[in-house]
Amino acid sequence: MMVVDRKANDRGHLLIADLPGQLQPNDLLILNDTRVVPARMRGRKSSGGKAELFFLEATGFGEWDILLKASRRPEAGSIVHFADDRARAEILEDLGHGRCRVKIHSDQDIHQLMEQYGETPLPPYIRRAAERPEDRERYQTVYAREPGAVAAPTAGLHFTPALLEELARCGVETATITLHVGLGTFRPVSTEQLADHEMEAERYVVPASTAEAINRTRAAGGRIIAVGSTSVRTLETIATDGFPIKAGSGRSQIFIHPPYDFKLIDGMLTNFHLPESTLIMMVCALGGYERIMQSYREAIRENYRFYSYGDCMLVI
User: Fold this and answer.
1) Which of 266, 285, 278 is CA-nearest to residue 30?
2) Contact status, residue 287 vs residue 295, Cβ threshold 8 Å
3) Following DSSP, what letter does each residue of 230-290 receive, concatenated?
4) How far apart are CA 316 and CA 313, in angstroms?
5) Strands 28-32 and 224-227
6) φ, ψ of residue 169 in degrees (nearest 5)
7) Residue 168: which H helix or E strand, with range?
8) In what order do the strands lie in the sheet with 28-32?
9) Could you report the per-residue pLDDT of 164-185, keeping only the tens digit for each?
10) Minimal CA–CA distance to 286: which of 216, 224, 200?
């Protein structure tokens, strides 16, 4: 774990087990408790050709937005069979960029079919011929509770029950939000002007207990530390309504990049991200562009690991 101290303009190299010593009593850690669903399903077109369905989000009764991979795009009205012919996806509309809206026809609940026939949507750079049994749990945080994500909030993968217990013993409180991670989180910025990039909306829920914990921490002078970019986006979205923070739900489409005036968080724990990603731009907005770029160069020299199962950075 690299620690980037903004006030001291300094960096340190520690372990994630050292996190309790970097926080203070009355600090509040915000965790995203979304749970990754086995959203990738193998199927076939009526013609017999192979197809892959990646379920993104339910949009209505029996209707879903999916990513569809096939040698030739099925037309509206055509059928894709999956789950050993226990279900059919009727193509309703081509949404572009590989997406389709489909109507699911099955005697079984789609979530049950996912659990039985679906595959964990591991990042594409993890190349495996088939899913391993341990993937379903290893690509989850230990506090994952609410099914709905198609990718893990990877900063949370560093936490263990023992670490959470140690944080509690040190007086650091934890609270949860839910933001169901979608593919838009990882879509690189391709526009010439940052302001022209549009984030895809992602569903979030902030429970009353978390809103109360945030307001209590603020009143006591404690810090709000977000675990992962998804927690940051959720917190900064709800903070647009001002204080005190209120419980609620909605969709977050906020794109945080320099310059940005953070309204709620005081720090974040995050992994190391790809160039041109919205994720690294968020970290630069918090830590300062030059400071974060220097930190990344040092991380490369020190052989830090990047990506989902890599090392992490604490910006405080």
Assistant:
1) 266
2) yes
3) HHHHHHHHHGGG-SS---EEEEE-----SS---SS-SEEEEE---TT-HHHHHHHHHH-HH
4) 10
5) parallel
6) -65, -30
7) helix 161-169
8) 10-13, 2-5, 312-315, 267-271, 224-227, 28-32, 173-179, 202-206, 248-252
9) 999 999 999 999 999 999 766 5
10) 224
Tell me how far CA of residue 48 lies from CA of 71, 82, 119, 158, 208, in angstroms: 11, 12, 21, 43, 50
pLDDT tens for 253-297 read 999 999 999 999 999 999 999 888 899 999 999 999 999 999 999
Q: Is the pLDDT of residue 80 over 90?
A: yes
Cβ neighbours for 117, distance < 8 A, ≥ 6 positions apart: 41, 42, 82, 83, 84, 86
Contact, 169 vs 203, CB < 8 A? no
CB 206 within 8 A of CB 249: yes
| Domains contained in the chain, CATH given | 2-36+137-315 (3.40.1780.10), 40-117 (2.40.10.240)
Torsion of CA 172, 177, 179, 181, to 10 degrees: 30
Q: What is the dihedral of CA 142, 143, 145, 148, to 10 degrees?
A: -70
